[in-house]
Write a structure and sequence with these properties.
It contains twelve helices and 19 strands. The model has no long low-confidence stretch (mean pLDDT 96). It is of the alpha+beta class and 505 residues long. Helices cover 28% and strands 19% of the residues. The two termini are 26 Å apart. α1 packs antiparallel against α3, α6 (241-253) runs antiparallel to α9 (315-329) and α10 (391-407) runs antiparallel to α11. It is globular, with a radius of gyration of 23 Å. Bound molecules: flavin-adenine dinucleotide. Flavin-adenine dinucleotide binds at residues 69-77, 93, 113, 136-138, 142-143, 145-147, 149-150, 152-153, 213-214, 355-356, 358-359, 373, 380, 497, 500.
Amino acid sequence: VRSTEEARRAFAAVVGAEWVETGAEELERAGTATFATRARPGALVRPASREEVQGCVAAARESGLALYPVSRGRNWGYGSRAPVADGAVLLSLERLDAIVDHDERLGYATVQPGVSFRRLAEFLRERGSRLSLNPPGSTPEASVVGNTLERGVVQGAAPDRAGEVCALEVVLPDGRCIRTGMAGLPGSRAARVHRWGIGPSLDGLFLQSSLGIVTEMTVWLRPFPAFHQHFHFTLQHDGSLEPALDTLQRLRAEESVTTSIALHNDFKLLSLFGQYPWALAAGRTPLDDALRQRLVAPLGGGAWFGEAALHASTAGGLEALRERVEGLLGPRVRGLGFTEVNAPGPFFGGAAGDSLAQAYWRKTAPPPPDPDPDRDRCGVIWHAPVAPFEPESVRACASIAREVLLAHGFEPALSLQAVSARCVYVVVSILFDRCRPGEDEKAVRCHAALAAALGDEGFHPYRLGLLDAAEPPPREEGYRALLHTLKTALDPDGMMAPGRYDAAR
Ligand SMILES: Cc1cc2nc3c(=O)[nH]c(=O)nc-3n(C[C@H](O)[C@H](O)[C@H](O)COP(=O)(O)OP(=O)(O)OC[C@H]3O[C@@H](n4cnc5c(N)ncnc54)[C@H](O)[C@@H]3O)c2cc1C
């Protein structure tokens, strides 16, 4: 490794000196997440083009430095912008912010990593497009590419974003650039509309991966439905969860409901709409049963709150779906309610992506107008195991989460997110205040216990965070060996995002 000054000069020669940061304060900020982190980036570099990204890869190789690429760095609850390995150069891609292509009829947009959900939505609106895409729950400032590379989820139609992309442009650790699928065939007219290309499909190699830097991606978008209607319900008692899940799975499988379906427990509801009642609880944690029930009563009460939406191309079609939901789900839940037809809501046309307040649940001051969980020392750790969409599995998973969080002194705020007819993401959040002494350590212990208890029962997360890097779920030997072979072939020096979804483990 050459000296820091030499490395700084090498990157500055590629991107310009003003786009290389090596100040201690800036690097401390870049290494701060919503839980305790030890690794700090060695520098923060902001290239503006694919060519500059390639130049940065060359500079890193020459300097013997590792790179840690991020798109817009809002990976809150999983590690924010902090690299896994200490000293890795943070390559922030927010300046690669071109919307390269958009096709209204075929329903796609091709974007660079700096394009946020908000930018893409504005771009589409300005062009009178009917295509739409909801942001994740954290913020519309998140990156479409960054979110998809983590296989993130959004509410509404097509919640599992990674299932709706193609034509990745990737800079490899040796500096070469490749394009996946049909985009890798010269002159292909189907580059942005066909996923697989010919032969082995390589897209998957670059999602949740340390094998390359994605500099462009085509995302498929759905037209905003002509008719839509949101519905919601509560489950008065926890025991009503099984029959409700059973019915919701049936509605999803027969495609009466084709959006994501969300069920939030009472703890989650409280964290979405308020803050920890420090005064009422006399400073004690976790929240006790009586106080929880008292606080949840003004929100309509109940153990679970559910929401989803219907959509159709005709008014009659929508009405038929509504009748189906009323007939099947109505008798099994309390207060099944529908919004007005075409009224905006979180799944279609409404304020989706506005649940960042929950990061401030255990803080004593309210969320500021410009929330930033890293800066404000909010404690958030996500762990989201995947369960089969069947009542007994979802219940088993939720029960483990509840038990472990309460035993560690945290409220088990759970959201069940059905992303298909086959599986549910049981999204668990450990929410705490990083300013309170001892909480950082307690939360990390809770996360480790949670991951272990769930893993023992075969419930593995759909995505890993920085805290999982030291001990990711074990792989079957053959699969691990294959990943290791791929990593050493593509990145023999281990310079690309070392430790991220570590293939050697
Ligand atoms: C209250 C709250 C609610 C949330 N709700 C959701 C939700 O509903 N759904 C959801 O999915 N997430 C959610 N999140 C988590 C997170 O905010 C989002 O996933 C967000 O989209 C990630 O940040 P980003 O898009 O800026 O991606 P980034 O932080 O830029 O990227 C994520 C990771 O992917 C890798 N990466 C990024 N870009 C590249 C690239 N170009 N090449 C190679 N590797 C790359 C990096 O390792 C990076 O750390 C929530 C968080 C909070 C605090």
